[in-house]
Amino acid sequence: MTAGDMFGRPAARVVLALIIGAAGALLFSWLRLPLPWMLGAMCTTTIAAILRVPVTAPTRIRPVMFAVLGVMLGSTFAPDMLARIGQWFGSLTLLSVCVLLTAAIAYPYFRRIAGFDPVTAFFCAMPGGMASMVAIAGAAGADERKVGLIHGSRVLLVVFAIPIWFQVTGQLQGVDRSTLGVGIESVEVRELLILTGAGALGWVLAWKLRMPSPMMLGPLIVSAALHITGLTESQPPRELVNLAQLIIGASVGCRFAGVAPREILRALAIGAGLTVVMLAIAAMFALAGGYLFSASLPALVLSFAPGGLPEMSLAALALGVDVAFVVTHHVTRIILVVAIAPAVFRRVTKNE
After folding, report:
1. pTM of whole model > 0.85?
2. Are 95 and 285 within 8 A, CB to CB?
């Protein structure tokens, strides 16, 4: 059997993607870059996809890894969080304005500069969840491929830019963020069963309630409830958290698999131009939020940045900022975009 025959099989392509992703994770760990298991895997699998290496995203196990991440993020919620939620109203209001301004600038960018049709440009401009935007866009008649590539490039560029920026500016100096969580030997079997139950129960409840990103958000909420009430103080083992990051990172990179290199590079170029604008807007609103509400600037930057919910939440965890604050703002952003997109879509395309 030739290598081409072997890697033509779906399972073998997934294994190859994980091997390439793990190599990137080890390289980023050696270089002491932030979030190596996610960013390293994301980087090497993206390069592999551009070079047309036969890689496939581990889609079957990815939802389970999102649940692991949700439980991990929920474990960072503290009992005093409920008392602090009321203090976030101002920054959440500011976030809503930031989202609307970002979309208002992004739409003409995709229409005039990128040359997209009105429907595709609209859903590329919406800074919502990548999966939800692609799904809604397809139903509305947009070019799903372009929408997926643009949102994929947005997440890729934002997730790379922010942690490395904080690393360069000294936010991570002297802190080993190569691993998150505790060693598996430190987690009792009873606590592991509690965390597993939190993940399973949260996933089912969120799916039944039709929440966005149910495989992550549900476990996060149940885990947070357990930790806020003091029923457990445990975290998932770092080995599992690192595996979750590896799979999530590799999945982002593999989104470009099967696409012509020229098309990938064009999407990255278009996405890079807009990402600079989006990050500038996020920074402007973060500075305003820091001035108005005396909130942490790193937390505000991560909250307003147009990255993905899991990726920005992991960045918050790696930076040691308020994860609950960041998660709440990104969930609000996704809900806001999903809620208003259909109504705004009808008005915008009607005027085209």
Report:
1. no
2. yes
